[in-house]
Give the backbone structure.
Amino acid sequence: MSTTPEGGTAARKRPRRLGPVRATAIYVLSAVLIVALIIGNSYALRYSDLISVYLGQSTQRVVSTDGDGDADYYISSFDNEADRQAYLEQVATDISREGITLLENDGALPLSTGIRVSLLGQDSVDPVFGGGGAGSVDTSQAVGFDDAFAAAGLEVNPTLWDFYDTGAGSSYRKATIDAYGQGSYAVNEVPQDVYTDEALASLDDYNDAAVVILGRSGGESSDLPTAADENGYTYLQLSAEERDMLQLASDRFDTVIVVLNAQNPVELGDLADYDVDATLWVGGLGQTGATAVAEVITGVVNPSGALTDTYAYDSLSAPAMANFGSYHFANNAEVWSQNAYLVYGEGVYMGYRYYETRYEDVVLGNEDASAYDYATQVQYPFGYGLSYTDFAWDGYTVDESDDSFQVSVEVSNTGDVAGKDIVQVYLQQPFTDYDVENGIEKSAIELAGYAKTSLLEPGASETVTVTVPKDLMATYDTDGFGTYIADAGDYYLAAGQNVHEALNNVLAAKGHSTADGMDVDGTADFAWVTTLDELDSTTFATSDVTGEPIVNQFPMTGVEAYDESFTYLSRTDWDGTWPTTYADGAWEAPQELIDAMQITVPEEDPDVETPVFDTVDPDYGELTAAMLVGEEYDSPAWDALLGQATLDELEQLVRIGGYATRGVDSIQLPATVVKDGPAGISDTLVGGESGMAYPPEIVLAATWNDELARQMGDAIGEDSIQLGVAGWYAPSTNLHRTPYSGRNFEYYSEDGLLSGRMGAAVVAGADAKGVQVFVKHFAINDQEVNRYGGAMFADEQTIREVYLPAFQMPVEDGGARGMMAAMNRIGATWVGAHEGLMTGVLRDEWGFQGVVITDQASFDVFAYEDLRQGLAAGTSLWLNTDAELWRLSDEDMTPTVQRDIVDAAHDVAFAVVNSNAMNGLAAGGRIEQVTPLWQWGLYALDAVVALGVLAMLGFTTRRLIVQRKTAEVTVES
């Protein structure tokens, strides 16, 4: 008994009896926690590399020894972070400054500072900075239009801004897809009946000029919609609400400026229905692009960009649009794995190659003028762009050397303000009877080179020289000689300020004029001709880089291999060969194609000896990775180094390479961190830190400035060193096959040469700072829909002449040691398993030395891919974050597969050893593995949960035992 506060007594409280239901619940809960702990730890181990990257935590440290010497192979150019950041911001802003393209101007631009302006459109407060997915931009540090315009000396209407930002207009925002392709695209401009009286009244106070900002975005894994909305407009046409807004601006303002904050070519013909005084294309902004827009609008910067795409009045008019979208075979159940396909039925006539070639055929009388009217087809040609000043060209000359032509033009600034001009040089090859007989198609004109002037003051002149390689004279002859040839006939080199002007100059040199159907007379003085007397089938039939013969590598990639009735678009009969639309369910895959789409396990090579592992080569002694810094790719020292590793180490190095590459302890090869970001090193997909966010690649290409592209690569390198991100999944060099590809913002252009030169310059700049680049997506991945396993059918001439140069130049001219294989098929074969592409072209013809990584391969849905088949073809590394995925059985580890793993590990090791991942690691140093903080946290959580479970189980079991004994005593009593 016990005493109460009042002095009484109270019975002692007995513990509440633990019933069977509660006891069972505790046991079940304990079991669940244990199982959850086991599963959680299992997944943490499977994805440990990805988790470490996401959290930005290192898994290794370098330990130096005395006498190691300086092992900083790649260093920053700056002594302090403030100067480094200032440089990055300058590069980013300069890209927009030179990429912004003036399309129309009746003298309204530039605006005077100090005036009052109204920014119209929801895009003013929610602009397009980048795009969705890998090319997305961290907007937390981005400059907005309000701050940029204010800094440039313009007074921005605050009432209208607040209306869009937080008021009634804030409910309307453009719809875009997320980083993983989920969602949809919609313009969602603010309807006129939503505008408040206060917002409309403010227009009278800030009425010196209206700046109407129109936005269109794009993203990964989803293309732009081509279907019309409820008002009859496609995504690349002005929406009904935008038209109403333009009418509002026309009615209320004397000066109306349209700013296209758009990634894809928007149809702009209807702007003529409104009182628009000037139109600027600015593309995505990146982190600082809004500053450049304000500088251009106020004249601090004279725009010098030029379009990298054709702007057609009808965005659906290109022949490539006949086969764009989601198409599946009619016999879906019979087609193994992914059953989607796409036919490049337009052949070489993509982008300006179609619009300009058909125009020439009208002028030459080969096409009925009533069938094609260039003036109503094309609003702005490829390469078009205006300036605030005027330029005059003179002194056109062409000098010939053994392997190139040097085209020179004297450019003079005849206007009133300083500015930059672009000299564009184009080539026309002869279209001959031999071509017609052998199925070779020829564009009437193709970009051959370009150069941008320095900033020319009024009255100043500069002689610009553009080097044109002679190998551009070659065309691929698939069915005749099976290699590159140069036709007999006349070859024209013409300069122009856009592709159409250059073609008109060629036609003028041929003696044609407006009397023959030309829209304007050309200038024959800016065209030069050279003649080959006979067909040359030998000069271009071997690689200049490797000396290897160039032969057919894509015999089964064209749809004609499986459909004998198919014909590609031909300039011999435009209407009669217009691409057949292989619509959804319209094509039944023949058995030959079904069979070809199966995974084919490579045959075992009977002559292969099983590689030696875990052994020190006596000729070299014990090696470390640092000892091979700068070693040639073909050196036998690599075999000796890799022979010290175990098969398990090399297999994991090759198989588990998503957003990181694994270290190999036995050879002291460091692990690396790799991130996405064509617009700059990005944390969007895998966390960690981001670097500077640059304008999208399309804006960089619009600068036509290779030196600026190289500076961007250098700036990426600065972030690479600072952030410890040695690998960069970029640049992206696929083409703008149609205006509606969702990822066009992330790619440079519709032209392979412009794309290739830009990519090469970026690669060269990044490589100088030790960045391991991965040029992507190699190749024929020019739309987002069905890029997972979709069979892309294109003929060999089209693949080689139109799409591959954008990848070839980053390798041959930029020195790229990394490539990312696309996820699609070429013909029936997954790209990564296509030996003709991965080895025949990339390595044997272009001389590539480095690593080819797959695109995303961390999920088992990629069942059309195969590790063995990919390794045999020349793919080196799997972008895989799952430590268990793609694992081969012991039976699969044949001598041939082991050899292929060693070859792939050689590629990876060579790339890593020549990157800034080696910084700090001298030949005598060593790498120690470090347990990252998150793993210590996991261990602590394991301990806490385990102790908690043990405590619960112990307490519950003890209670049950006590209760049972008590019950037994009671019964005995």
